[in-house]
Write a structure and sequence with these properties.
By secondary structure, the protein is an alpha+beta fold. It contains 14 helices and 22 strands. The strands form 7 sheets. Strands 1, 3, 10, 11, 14, 18, 21 and 22 form an 8-stranded mixed β-sheet that branches. A 4-stranded antiparallel β-sheet has the order 13-12-19-20, with helices on one face.
């Protein structure tokens, strides 16, 4: 029997520090850049696999009509499929529309600490919509022929299609919002979709090589030095091949020529550009089938991330991993962000009551493992070039100026008496885990305690990770199924472990060279 040692109070801090090291190939925060940071979900949220399917299959896919099925039964089935797709798209979109409230400070070395995710209750779509509504822009005019050419070029990137509304009620009065006969939907062109896919593959290959190179050059990682010597040439070739694939199969040159041309022309006419952004935002807006509130569709990229067998990294954590990390950099990460606070610990829920389980769980018998991957967020309706441009501002009569607020101060949180940043950062990536196993060595006192507690209908929570297997999602209550596999509880399904967030640059940041008379009149 192993010596009893309680699970330490800084368990969460060290655990997430080790996960951070895993996703950055060594824990160098510079790999994220000064404008990015990681925010962890200390209580993971369940993700329904079907919540990602809408991005790959769309809303209006066909449903196979079974033999001997009546037309009414078929219509009901199709309707239910469509209904669920809308709900899933709403859940995902609202999940990534959140804005973090805790922004780690920028450190002298240009990095930011990881932190615990905290929701500000502000939403990207709302802040951006208000920016489009209340802003004024540099007033110039664009030649109609040039405008037509831009529209033709843009169709090589996006296409807006007019579709018959499958929900149109011909017994009611047609209404553009409540009962439209047609809906407009924006689609990424096939060539631009390939561009985005091969862009991700290229930067993933480059990141893999750069991370290993940085770890080896640090001189403190013998394994990284060995790996660089053995695999360095292969990884370099992988980067070169990824670039070639991006150029040939991903239409890199053609797409970037289109982007550069449009950018150069539209920079000279921001009024036209703003109207386009307003149109794209409106097209992406949908009405919730649950609450009738509106939301803007966002999607995971790649859309098949959960079905992809590649890209999942194995992660293991136990007492030995903790000991080897105790004095390392991972322990110091997030010390000011609430990790290891008194609110975290080992507890059990037995017959509806929460009890302290720290004296029942031996850290020497503890083990944990899962697979982790990530996906980027595609917000086709969010015009970051507009947000970051020098050719717009809020007028003095706008609610933003009156309330002393800005989109972002480019730093993070509110600075002294400075304006309140409404959207200091946005979620750029999601960290997803699967095959979570958490438990204790079979036959140990800790194992028997967990087994008996769960067998009696209770659960055991270890610093936010639930050995009982119950996880909830904000929009709908989702319970992940669990099964005993020897010494562990295995949570089936996918869990959202955290986010990578991107600091929004100073916005608005109007050019001082624009005269007062050159701004448009507020709407």
């Amino acid at each position: 029997m192993s010596k009893f040692e309680p699970i330490p109070k800084d368990f969460t801090q060290v655990l997430f520090g080790e996960v951070f090291k895993k996703i950055t190939n060594g824990g160098d925060a510079k790999m994220l850049g000064m404008n990015d940071f990681v925010a962890w979900n200390t209580v993971p949220e369940a993700l329904d696999k079907q919540a990602f399917d809408f991005a790959a299959k769309g809303f209006f896919g066909s449903v196979k009509k079974e033999e001997n099925m009546s037309q009414e039964e078929y219509n009901n089935l199709r309707s239910s499929k469509k209904w669920s797709a809308y709900i899933y798209s709403q859940e995902f979109s609202e999940l990534v529309d959140k804005i973090p409230s805790t922004i780690p400070a920028l450190k002298p070395d240009g990095t930011r600490e990881m932190t615990i995710w905290s929701d500000s209750l502000k939403r990207v779509s709302q802040i951006y919509e208000d920016a489009l509504l209340f802003s004024v822009v540099l007033n110039t005019e664009l030649d109609p022929k040039l405008l037509k050419k831009i529209d033709t070029m843009r169709k090589k990137l996006f296409t807006i299609k007019k579709l018959a509304n499958p929900d149109f009620d011909d017994t009611s009065i047609e209404h553009p919002e409540d009962n439209p006969k047609f809906v407009f939907q924006s689609f990424i062109s096939p060539s631009y979709l390939k561009y985005l896919e091969y862009e991700i593959k290229y930067y993933a290959a480059e990141e893999e090589f750069r991370n290993l190179e940085a770890a080896a050059q640090g001189g403190n990682d013998p394994q990284a030095i060995t790996d660089l010597a053995l695999k360095g040439g292969m990884l370099k070739k992988k980067v070169v091949n990824a670039m070639k694939a991006w150029e040939t199969l991903g239409f890199k040159t053609q797409i970037e020529k289109v982007q550069n041309y449009i950018s150069q022309v539209e920079e000279g006419n921001f009024l036209t550009l703003k109207e386009r952004y307003k149109t794209e935002f409106s097209i992406a807006k949908r009405t919730s089938v649950l609450t009738s509130n509106s939301f803007n569709i966002s999607a995971p990229l790649p859309s098949n991330v959960l079905n992809n067998s590649d890209g999942w990294m194995n992660f293991e954590f136990s007492k030995s991993h903790y000991d080897s990390s105790y004095s390392s950099k991972s322990k110091n990460w997030g010390a000011s962000a609430g990790f290891g606070g008194s609110s975290w610990g080992a507890s059990a829920h037995i017959k509806g009551e929460k009890v302290d389980a720290s004296s029942k769980l031996n850290f020497n018998d503890f083990n944990m493992s899962f697979k982790i991957s990530k996906c980027s967020i595609n917000r086709g309706w969010l015009g970051m070039p507009f947000v970051e441009s020098r050719y717009w501002k809020f007028p003095k009569t706008s609610p933003q100026v009156i309330n002393n607020s800005v989109i972002s101060n480019g730093i993070g949180g509110k600075q002294g008496n400075g304006p309140e940043p409404l959207m200091p950062a946005v979620i750029s990536e999601m960290y997803i885990i699967k095959d979570l196993k958490i438990g204790f060595n079979e036959g140990s006192d800790s194992f028997n305690y967990v087994k008996n507690t769960i067998g009696g209908g209770g659960s055991v929570n270890i610093f936010g990770f639930n050995a009982g297997g119950h996880y909830s999602q904000s929009a709908t209550d989702v319970t992940s199924t669990t099964e005993r596999t020897g010494q562990n509880q295995t949570a089936k399904g996918y869990l959202l472990l955290g986010y990578k967030c991107h600091i929004v640059p100073l916005s608005p940041n109007p050019s001082p060279n624009i005269k007062d008379s050159e701004w448009t009149i507020p709407d």
